[in-house]
Amino acid sequence: MLVSPAVQAARAQSALHNLFIFPLSSFLVSFKNQKKLDKKYLDLAISLSKGPDPSPNPRVGALIVKDDLILGSGHHHGPGTPHAEIEAITDAISNGNSKLLKGATLYVSLEPCSHTLKRTPPCTDAILKSGIDRVVFGMKDPNSLVSGAVFLRSKGVSVAGPLSQKECEKINSTYLRMLKIPPRVILKMAMSLDGKIATRENDSKWISSEKSRLMVHHLRSRCDAILVGAGTVIADNPRLTSRIPSGKDPIRVIIDGSLSTSPKSNVFQNPDGKTILVTCASSRAKLKLYSSPNLRTLVFPGKKVDLRLLLTSLSAMGLKSLLLEGGSTLAGEFFDANLIDEFYFFICPKLIGGKTAKSPLGGLGLANVCESPRLHSITYRKVGPDLLIHGTILRS
Ligand SMILES: NC(=O)c1ccc[n+]([C@@H]2O[C@H](COP(=O)([O-])OP(=O)(O)OC[C@H]3O[C@@H](n4cnc5c(N)ncnc54)[C@H](OP(=O)(O)O)[C@@H]3O)[C@@H](O)[C@H]2O)c1
User: For the segment 273-309, what is each residue's pLDDT rounded down to a tens digit?
Assistant: First the structure.
């Protein structure tokens, strides 16, 4: 493993220190000295993050230290590769320091991640497993709903940070700018000729033809995530997978404000760790009913999930395209909040009727037709017996 000159110099200095000076065991180090050491090693971790650009991921450097001796170091190289914390732990092990990891301190320029919805496993798990019992970090994870610091503290790890927020933000300015770009929201709906997406009894199987449904499976496999509301899970008990050969299953995001779905629903039974339950219900007892090692839960404050904040959180998890598959209530909220970028409307030769049967966009809706958003690049295509109207919406 390549070691930067800064780490080499610090290692030599700390090795000398350990040979000639009495080792600094943490309980003898005064608060002031600890602060000085923290600054020295965090600065070093930050300098490690300034290597080659891991874009679109953030720049992160990490260092593991015990008794003023550097056990291992590393930085993040880019998408799909281990995070800096894992590089540092692996480096420490390959340096023969695995036994020293217990009780060591990890210095890392970005708050360790704790979410499972990415290509690499959460760093918080590796930190706990290694025996590291103190973490000092530079910058807070920009995704406020996914706090590794809170998680580590809850497991008894001492955590200090953010200690260099401004400096790390400057180093990661491109990454932080990219996070502000919201994920693309693509609405898919199948409706009858009279504009219904389900019957008055909430039956919607099947309004569209087999050919259209196959197309939706292809669409799913091209998107990072599928979003549905609790009503759709209750009515249809969907699996929300992409059932095409070699198709990729997107992450399933279930928005269930008051936890009205059954924990036994298909979307919560899948063992692939790709489901996120988004709720406002904070009752531990209720949430526990859904608990499974493969389910990630995001609890929002208030009575309704703030959809903009949700999009920011999903973007911070690296999700850039979201297929909004309904139902009427959720799609209407996205429309009212002006958050839909693109749509696929399958208009199918069936008649359903009924004033209580749902239409694609619930919510408040517009008061005047002239307020309708500008639609672009509209195409019309026959898919089996159905008509597919596809287009984009200019977000105002
Ligand atoms: N034809 C199609 O393409 C299609 C597609 C999808 C669905 N459907 C049909 O549509 C029907 C379901 O539509 P729906 O309007 O009843 O249900 P829905 O939109 O799927 O779900 C509504 C529920 O989602 C939760 N929710 C939505 N927005 C929320 C927010 N901002 N914060 C917190 N929770 C939020 C609420 O759950 P809580 O009550 O728990 O707070 C709400 O009651 C079903 O019949 C289904 O078959 C048809």
Answer: 789 999 998 888 888 898 776 788 888 889 999 999 8
Confirm or reject: Cβ of 281 under 6 Å from ligand 1: no
d(CA 351, CA 126): 56
pTM: 0.73
C-beta separation of 343 from 191 below 8 A: no
Measuring CA to CA, which residue among 148, 121, 116, 118 is closest to residue 135? 148
Strands, E, within the chain: which ranges? 61-66, 69-75, 105-110, 134-139, 158-160, 184-192, 225-229, 251-255, 275-279, 295-299, 321-324, 342-348, 375-383, 386-393
Residue among 122, 110, 112 at smallest CA distance from 171: 110
| 63 closest CA partner among 109, 31, 25 | 109
| 304 close to ligand 1 (CB < 6 Angstrom) | yes
Place of tokens 């019957």: 199
The verdict on the CB of residue 172 being under 6 Å from ligand 1 is no
CA of 326 to the centre of ligand 1 (A): 6
Residue nearest to ligand 1 atom 9, measured at CA: 327
Separation of CA 361 and ligand 1 centre (Å): 11
Q: What is the DSSP string of 144-187?
A: TT--HHHHHHHTT-EEE--SSHHHHHHHTHHHHHHHTSPPEEEE
